[in-house]
Amino acid sequence: MPDGEILEGLGSSPGRVMGRARIVEDLVWQADEFEAGEILVTRFTDATWTPLFAIAGGVVTDIGSMLSHSSIVAREFNVPSVVNTKHATQVIRTGDLIVVDGDAGTVEVAESTGS
Prior knowledge:
The chain has one domain: Glucose Oxidase, domain 1, CATH 3.50.30.10. The chain is built from four helices and eight strands. It has an eight-stranded mixed beta sheet with strand order 1-8-7-3-4-5-6-2, covered by helices on one side.
């Protein structure tokens, strides 16, 4: 996704954060790759994902609502979150520098890795 590109979704946990994206498609195989402060970008979450919220800088999901797991847990951990972006996992790449705005419901690619 080009620098400056903005995805729109539903802001489900307030706040604004900038960090490196980490696409996680398979929690079992990728959980140990996730580093503190990274932005979790995934299709959706369930209870097994909760430990990542404790170290995540922000959360972005392809699907979700205000009452979805990722939204509720993001609010509990005070982590900015945008859900229902439709295709964040397809256009954002691991390592991209992104801005998650949980108030506006937007995710901006500040710096693309281009890979």
